[in-house]
Design goal:
CATH superfamily of the largest domain: Periplasmic binding protein-like II
Low-confidence stretches: 1-25
CATH class of the largest domain: Alpha Beta
Distance between the termini: 49 Å
Order of helices and strands: HEHEHEHHEEHEHEHEHEHEHHHHEHH
Number of helices: 16
Largest sheet: 6 strands, mixed
Number of strands: 11
Oligomer: single chain
Mean pLDDT: 88
Strand order of the largest sheet: 2-1-3-10-4-11
Length: 345
């Protein structure tokens, strides 16, 4: 009897050792993730249904909060509410000095996840040719485009796009004629002929086309857009890097799942949005909103298109151009550092 008990104990210990060896690495402590109820981020709510916590060995708790509250919450060294959150690269660089002033535990932009590319510029003047991707490499074409009268809000992503084009075509950014106005006011000014080109989001693009106008530049062709990624404090990354890496893998698994069949796989995301978002999306509205985004469906794709210098929206180049813009406009006292995304095997 005693020998049987000892044998069972040995078998149990061997099995436990094998399980500990083969189970996904991670922490039993939940990783608290701040999200906002937007059409893109909502894809992450699929992680439980897909069994990703078990697959990767990291327990996740999603905490919904207003977008503008995430960066301050992450930056708060005394915060016990979240570990990591979603953040805009442009906002991160703009506020880098302020959020990290005097801190030995800075907020880091950990890894790029997706891109908003739906913005652009419209014109109702048929004499202004579109600045397409194949014309973007011709400095003369870019200079001619930048000679137009623009309507765009100062210190916005749209002004940064024009600054980026100027940098790449050796045009003095101060020579660009930009009238400071909202998207709706810019469209109205373009309709009235007081400007040539108006900054536009999806609503303004639709209205411009209805009036016989055209898109003369989009962010996708410009290779400049606002990147969203994960942000956290350095000490959190050091303590929870494996879990954060697993969260990144979960994100791409969720995106890949939803985008593989949007009609069939968007139910959980839409339920979350209906419960938490001010916008009550129909499926068609949800699909239209996602059309304005570039969402890599895998880690390999994100590494190729967002991290690599030869990618579609390279993090380092866009960060450098945003930093140049912020310095030139006097919006920062010193150049914010270009983020170094973590390397995932």
């Amino acid at each position: 009897m005693r020998s049987r008990i000892l044998l069972l104990a040995v078998v149990f210990l061997v099995a436990a050792g094998v399980w500990l060896t083969l189970r996904p690495s991670g922490s039993s402590q939940q990783l608290r993730v701040a999200i906002s109820p937007y059409q893109d981020i909502a894809m992450l709510v699929n992680y439980k249904a897909l069994g990703l916590e078990n697959k990767y060995g990291t327990q996740v708790e999603l905490r919904t909060m207003a977008w503008e509250d995430i960066l301050p919450a992450v930056a708060s060294a005394s915060s016990q509410s979240i570990d990591v959150g979603f953040g805009s690269l442009t906002e991160y660089l703009t506020k880098y000095d302020k959020i990290n002033a005097g801190s030995t535990d800075p907020v880091l932009f950990v890894f790029p996840l997706y891109v908003y590319k739906g913005g652009g510029f419209v014109s109702l003047d048929s004499s202004i040719p579109p600045l397409t991707r194949d014309r973007m490499s011709d400095p003369a074409s870019v200079k001619k485009f930048l000679a137009a009268r623009f309507g765009a809000q100062k210190q916005s992503i749209y002004e940064m796009v024009l600054f980026s084009l100027a940098q790449r075509s050796t045009t003095d950014p101060s020579s660009i004629h930009i009238h400071d106005m909202s998207l709706n006011d810019a469209l109205l000014a373009a309709v009235n002929g007081s400007i040539d080109v108006a900054a536009a989001g999806l609503t303004q693009v639709t209205e411009a086309r209805r009036r016989g106008g055209q898109v003369v530049l989009n962010m996708d062709d410009a290779g400049f857009a606002d990147i969203t990624g994960l942000i956290c404090r350095r000490t959190v990354l050091e303590a929870r890097q494996t879990d954060i890496e697993n969260l990144i893998r979960m994100w791409f698994a969720c995106v890949g799942h939803v985008m593989a069949d949007l009609q069939a796989n968007s139910a959980l995301s839409l339920d979350y949005l209906r419960a938490n978002s001010a916008t009550r999306y129909t499926f068609d509205e949800y699909k239209t909103a996602l059309d304005q985004e570039y969402l890599p469906g895998s880690l390999d794709e994100a590494s190729r298109e967002l991290v690599s210098s030869s990618g579609r929206f390279p993090l380092q180049r866009i960060s450098g151009e945003v930093a140049d813009y912020l310095l030139r406009q006097g919006l920062v006292s010193q150049r914010p550092p270009v983020p170094e995304p973590i390397s995932l095997d």
